[in-house]
UniProtKB/TrEMBL annotation:
PANTHER family: 4-DIPHOSPHOCYTIDYL-2-C-METHYL-D-ERYTHRITOL KINASE, CHLOROPLASTIC. It comes from the Bacteria. GO terms for molecular function: 4-(cytidine 5'-diphospho)-2-C-methyl-D-erythritol kinase activity; ATP binding. Belongs to the GHMP kinase family. IspE subfamily. InterPro entries: GHMP_kinase_C_dom, GHMP_kinase_C_sf, GHMP_kinase_N_dom, IspE, Ribosomal_Su5_D2-typ_SF, Ribsml_uS5_D2-typ_fold_subgr. One of its GO terms (biological process) is isopentenyl diphosphate biosynthetic process, methylerythritol 4-phosphate pathway. Its EC number is 2.7.1.148. It comes from Georgenia muralis. Keywords: ATP-binding, Isoprene biosynthesis, Kinase, Nucleotide-binding, Transferase. This is 4-diphosphocytidyl-2-C-methyl-D-erythritol kinase.
Length: 311
């Protein structure tokens, strides 16, 4: 008797870039980056159920996203199907908490969760390294969604090195109605920096970010937050200046645009301080939603296997 799952539920987190350094564009259109990711407690849940072919339904945020082969979750399932040669299919039910096109890698979390869910459902049995290789084919941020916690990303952001982090950090997120396009923000960055192909120094992280994470002290971390894409995001969406100013007035330790934006992440001392910062930011009416999250949290993980027993 072999226990075969008929359904698998996987959860993967969104992220904040605590530090993001960007170099000049490469011939393939990507930019070399050096970043420190932190996975935070906004989650994408994927339930993969045995079915014919690959199909997708979306709940929560992003209900108007396409459910065809352009969706990152579908692309992940198709890639695993093709790589493993399986004849099995899956229906994917995706529940999204992470804002769409918010600079928090929700689509990447969907792809990572789907890879893991389908791997379990189909018994493909790939190692974490093999999954990470497929992940990087799907997008620069996808490998981190598998790893979670706190990690350094280099190359296109897809080469992941976990880093030590002490304690829990409390963040207030200001979520905007309308997302920003990642390629557009990188293009704006190139214009602002007057960067051409392979022009300028390779991006480097300051070791002080890693030391701050290790200290567990949010005040120390607040002094090391930084994002090279912030100016470009502000250029494209000047209202984000009001969000950063509101976070400052609310007494946040520091605030920055996450990744390519437009979500702004404000760091608080502890939970009570985060509640107070969130209250002031809500009253300032600078965002569609103000959310409280914590980090670091784990990467993609199986929450449940549903089994049918077959002889
Ligand atoms: C900026 C960051 C920071 O973590 O995150 P988000 O703000 O998107 O969440 C990432 O680098 C985004 O990663 P991700 O969103 O997975 O990018 P991809 O889908 O692979 O690439 C989309 C496009 O963004 C640009 N891109 C992305 C990554 C990178 N290192 N250099 C780039 O220039 C390229 O124009 C690429 O065609
Ligand atoms: N499952 C998905 N969830 C979100 N966006 C997706 C998904 N599949 C494809 N996309 C496309 O990717 C774009 C950016 O995705 P997302 O990961 O939400 O933002 P960001 O890159 O800013 O972190 C979306 O605007 C959408 O066009």
């Amino acid at each position: 008797m072999t226990a075969t799952p008929i359904a698998v539920q996987v959860r993967a987190p969104g992220k904040i870039n605590l530090a993001l350094r960007v170099g000049a564009p490469r011939p393939d259109g990507y930019h070399p980056i050096a970043t420190v990711f932190q996975a935070v407690s906004l989650y994408e849940d994927v339930v993969a159920t045995r079915a014919d072919g690959i199909s997708l339904e979306i709940h929560g945020r992003g209900e108007d996203l396409p459910v065809d082969a352009t969706n990152l979750a579908v692309r992940a399932a198709v890639l695993l199907c093709e790589t493993s040669g399986t004849r099995a299919g899956a229906h994917l039910s995706l529940t999204k908490q992470v804002p769409v096109a918010g600079g928090m890698a929700g689509g990447s979390a969907d792809a990572a969760a789907t890879l893991l869910a389908c791997d379990q459902l189909w018994g493909t049995g790939l190692s974490r390294d093999e999954l990470a290789e497929l992940a990087s084919e799907l997008g620069a941020d996808v490998p981190f969604a598998l790893t979670g916690m706190s990690a350094m990303g280099t190359g296109r952001g897809d080469l992941i090195t976990p880093v030590m982090s002490r304690g829990t950090y409390h963040w207030v997120l200001a979520v905007q109605d309308e997302g920003l396009s990642t390629p557009e923000v990188f293009r704006e960055y190139d214009q602002l920096q007057h960067l051409d192909l392979d022009d300028g120094p390779a991006p480097r992280l300051d070791d002080a970010v890693l030391a701050a994470l290790l200290s567990g002290d949010p005040i120390q971390l607040s002094r090391q937050l930084g994002n090279d894409l912030q100016e470009a995001a502000l250029e494209l969406r000047p209202e984000l200046g009001d969000v950063l100013a509101a976070a400052d007035r609310a007494g946040a330790l520091a605030a920055l645009v996450s990744g390519s934006g437009p979500t702004v992440a404000a760091l608080a001392l502890d939970h009570a301080h985060a509640v107070s910062v969130a209250g002031v930011m809500r009253a300032a009416e600078v965002a569609k939603e103000i959310l409280l999250v914590t980090g670091p949290v784990p990467g993609a993980r199986v929450l449940e296997h549903v089994h049918s027993r077959r002889p």
